[in-house]
Every structure is written in C-alpha cells, then in structure tokens.
Amino acid sequence: MRIDFIMVNRTLVVILEGELDHHTCVEIRQTVDREYQKKRAKNLLFDFASINFMDSSGIGMLMGRYRSVAICGGEVGLFNVSPEAERILAMSGIHKLMRTYTSKEEAIQALA
Amino acid sequence: MPKKNSMQIQFSSNSSNESFARVAVAAFVSQLDPTMEDLYDIKMAVSEAVTNSIIHGYENREDGQICIKCAYEDELVSIEVIDKGKGISDIEEAMTALYTTSIDEERAGLGFTVMQSMMDEVQVFSEVENGTTVKMKKSLGVE
Ligand SMILES: Nc1ncnc2c1ncn2[C@@H]1O[C@H](COP(=O)(O)OP(=O)(O)OP(=O)(O)O)[C@@H](O)[C@H]1O
Ligand SMILES: [Mg+2]
Asked: Where are the beta strands (DSSP E) in chain A?
C-alpha cells in the first residue's frame, strides 16, 4: 500500500495505491489521521485511481474518516472511482455522507 | 469432459494473509477462465469471510488457523472458509445488513451482505467456542 499526500488550500488530497482491505486500512487510518492533524486540513479528498480492490473494510475506513472530518466542519470526497469500487460504495449507502467527483479540479472547487 | 478440481489451503490468522487468500483462490478459479467481474466478486467474498475469521473469530490474535476449501465442477465454484474461533451465537442477527459487534473499530457491518450479493448462495454454520464455517457457491458466467 502506498499513500501520498498533496495539500490544496485546506483540502488534503490522499492518493492511495494498492488494495483496500482490513490489513491495509489499519495503516491508512493512522497515516491519514496523522497527516490531517499535522497539516491542519479541513477536507479530505481520496484519489481512487490506483485502488484495484476494495472490500467492506474500505467502507469502514471511509466512514471513520467522515466522522472525524465532520467534527472539524470539513467534508470527505472521492474521485477517480472505478466501476468495481463504485459497486460496494453504492451498496453501503455511503454516498449520503460523501460525494464522488469526476475530477480532482471539480472536487477541489466544490470543497473550497 | 466435465471439469472437476479441488484445492485446500491453510494459513495463520494474520491480516497480511487476507490478500494471500484472495489471490490464491482467484488463481485456482482462473483455471475456468472466468470473466474479470466474476473473479472480482469471488475475491470480495473470500476477503470478507477471511477478514471475519481474523477479526471476529480469532479477535485479531495471529495464532489461529484458517482453512479454505475450494472446488469446482463445470462452472459451479464452491468455497468454504473455516475457522476454529469463538463462533457466532445468533447467525441470523449476524447476517443482518449493518449489524456489527465491532462498535469502536470502524466496521460497516456489510461483510455478509457483500458475500450474499457477490455469490449465488451463502450458508453459515457456527458453534460458540467452536468456530465458524462459511460455505459459498457461484455459477460462473450467470447473471
Ligand atoms: N468468523 C466469525 N466468527 C465470529 N463472529 C463472526 C464471524 N463472522 C462474522 N461474525 C459476526 O457477525 C457480525 C457481522 O459480520 P459482517 O462481516 O457482516 O460485519 P462486520 O465484520 O462487523 O463489518 P464489515 O464486514 O463491514 O467490516 C460481526 O460483527 C461478528 O459479530
Ligand atoms: Mg466483516
């Protein structure tokens, strides 16, 4: 699992590369929360372009990030979501809590 | 000629084996030349069942053993995920969507729901203190 960050305004963009399962979500959770605090970010934006697998642990990880970001008045967004990942996102009803954007630019603008 | 084959693997309840289990089952099922979508569905279902054995059955201890039995006959694939962990007292309740016993662990309670939607058939056998077996079936290439 590779995790990279870019800070744009007050949005922390999280670029994930690999598979989202229980094993990798433990690491993602710790790394993302630490960076979010360090950068004093408001919003979290996940780039899913290089996610080639996701199960319900990924949903739990996203819901957990939503809860902590909402406390700080921020929002969580996703972009570059594959049709496979979209199936489980839709099944979970998580779209009520976070939006999927078509591009990074659109997301950054909406979250600003 | 009917296609018929089976395999069995056993591994420790270490979370790094979640991806190993998915890949191992997918490699075996690949002998049937499945669609990418069917293969992805099977990987999801295996991942959910193995993760449940690790976090619920063995409560994140790494000294447990998980066994996967996988077989196919023509286009019908059957997969069993077996643990000797703490078991489930109320299976029906456990299989309800959004039900989870891990309240402080960021779990969605979706594992069984995902297994049921990815596979044609999901059966759960469990005995408290004695472990859980999840049996799943899927016919390849059927919508
Ligand atoms: N192998 C198992 N051993 C013991 N209990 C289990 C096992 N599998 C499932 N359970 C119980 O069934 C409940 C529901 O499982 P399910 O996979 O649907 O949700 P979850 O694992 O809690 O959350 P998610 O799968 O979304 O991360 C679990 O919370 C747990 O209490
Ligand atoms: Mg589960």
From this structure: 2-8, 11-20, 43-54, 76-79, 99-101
Q: Is the CB of A57 under 6 A from ligand 1?
A: yes
Report whether pLDDT(B143) > 70: no
- What are the tokens at A80? 């570059």
How much helix, strand and coil, in percent to the nearest 5, is found in chain A?
50, 30, 20
Q: Which of A27, A55, A98 to mutate to test the interface with B (most CBs of B within 10 A)?
A: A55
Cβ–ligand 1 contact at B84 (below 6 Å): no
Tens digit of each residue's pLDDT (9 = 90 or more) over A22-71: 999 999 999 999 999 999 999 999 999 999 999 999 999 999 999 999 99
**In whole angstroms, what is the distance from residue B93 CA to residue B29 CA?**
31
Contact B47 A55 (CB under 8 A): yes
Please name the amino acid found at residue B103. Answer: I
Structure tokens at A112: 């600003």
Tell me the CATH number for domain B4-139. 3.30.565.10
Examine the residue annotation and report whether B52 is marked as an active-site residue of this protein. yes
Do A1 and A34 form a contact (C-beta atoms < 8 A)?
no
Return the domain boundaries, chain B: 4-139
Closest Cα to residue B49, out of B103, B110, B90? B110
Give contacts of B39 with chain A, Cβ < 8 Å: none
**Domains, chain A, with CATH or none:** 2-111 (3.30.750.24)
Q: Clarify whether B107 is annotated catalytic.
A: yes
ipTM score assigned to the predicted complex = 0.94
